[in-house]
Specification:
single chain, alpha/beta, 8-stranded mixed β-sheet, globular
Length: 394
């Protein structure tokens, strides 16, 4: 395997490699793991954060192309053109084109494949109402986009719902492979009282608080509006409860301003901390008691994976992505989507039951250790790269 690995090099197409978000986090983690295994990766992305246009990190080569304009459609067009030019000019450097999402990156990959026959794989990041298949159907030239997607060699999905969505637009099921997201697993756990105390002291949180935490983007589809509404009732029952919201809005579908304004109107800002984007999210997770993600739509939530890896009791919704990860009442609690009363009652029940929190947290961490370690998931990607290169030779 090691001998084969040395012959592999990957070109990674991702629109916003440097932005915060689950998709970007997974791409960064994978590239880092490939570097540890001496596998070169060439990342083509947009320079949204105004960073160096070229940067080398171990075996990773990051090329950041200017967005040219603030208009999304025009910026996407220029990203497509500059990426295609780079791919043709440097075709000897890589064997596989790995696209993150079915939008511009997949379009670029397939257009290049038509001429230089490089295998293309596409990782799908979202499903349901806000998923990629649903969004592609709304975009201009949707029929052309779908036609090009049918030429992708392999789709990587995060849950079975994505498989159904892809086959519904004519993608061959034999080209679809389920590889879940991976996560770095900390040695410490939130269910360990000593570890929790240590991190609370570091972050200046009182030991007597019952901390509920959300992490992720502050956007539509995450269920945050409902969470803010019920929090007033929760602190009416348990005045020591504290809600941490880690994350920020983004350019599209942001609700950050809306939920902050609502929290102020409800008079709950004394028990709701808006942390913004935090780089040390694991420390906050290890200081907490409960993780909550009442989302309407997910691919496979990095936030849930990180919370489970930290040994937190997780409350989330019965969407397909979550149900494949969480066994209800064993390693987490599942509720119906957009059900404010159920969310409130489940959180209150968990707040009052320390033994249940600890049991769920321990089982959650064991689940991650068994099936979702970053090393295990990276090995599956490398096996897929090797499989595609062998198919190309035949």
């Amino acid at each position: 395997m090691e001998k084969k690995n040395k012959k592999i090099s990957i070109c990674v197409l991702i629109a916003n490699y440097d932005s915060p978000g689950g998709l970007q986090r997974q791409a960064n983690l994978l590239v880092d793991q490939l570097s540890l295994r001496s596998i070169p990766a060439y990342i083509l992305t947009r320079n949204q954060e105004k960073l160096q246009t070229y940067e080398k990190k171990n075996y990773a080569h990051i090329y950041r192309f200017p967005p040219f304009t603030k208009f999304r459609a025009i910026s996407s067009f220029f990203y497509i053109i500059t990426s295609i030019f780079w791919l043709f000019l440097n075709y000897r450097k890589y064997q596989i084109i790995h696209c993150h999402q079915s939008y511009s990156p997949a379009t670029i990959g397939v257009l290049v494949k038509l001429f230089i026959k490089k295998p293309v794989m596409v990782k799908v990041s979202g499903s349901n109402e806000y998923g990629e298949v649903s969004e592609i159907k709304k975009l201009p030239f949707s029929r052309i986009r779908i036609y090009l997607l049918k030429k992708v060699d392999r789709f990587i999905i995060l849950n079975e719902g994505m498989r159904k969505e892809l086959t519904s637009i004519g993608i061959n099921h034999k080209r679809i492979e389920l590889i879940p997201n991976g996560v770095v697993i900390p040695h410490q756990s939130a269910y360990d009282d000593a570890a929790k105390k240590l991190h609370r002291e570091k972050l200046h949180f009182s030991e007597d608080k019952l901390i509920v935490i959300y992490s992720g983007r502050l956007t539509e589809g995450k269920g945050l509006e409902i969470l803010i509404e019920i929090w007033k009732e929760i602190i009416g029952v348990e005045n020591k409860a504290l809600l941490l919201i880690a994350g920020a809005g983004c350019k599209f579908r942001s609700i950050e301003a809306k939920i902050k304004e609502r929290a102020e109107l409800l008079g709950i800002l004394h028990s709701v901390y808006f942390l913004g984007h935090v780089s040390n999210i694991v420390e906050y997770l290890l200081s907490a008691d409960i993780f909550v993600l009442p989302s309407v739509s997910e691919g496979m939530s990095n936030a849930i994976l990180e919370a489970m890896a930290c040994g937190l009791a997780v409350v989330s919704t019965k969407i397909e992505a979550n149900a494949e990860l969480i066994v209800d009442k064993f390693n987490g609690l599942l509720i119906e989507r957009q059900n404010a009363d159920e969310l409130k009652n489940v959180l209150l029940a968990l707040i009052s039951n320390a033994d249940l929190r600890k049991s769920l947290g321990k089982n959650a961490k064991n689940t991650i250790l068994r099936d979702y370690s970053l090393e295990r998931i990276t090995s599956r990607y490398i096996a897929m790269y090797n499989e595609l290169t062998q198919e190309q030779k035949r």
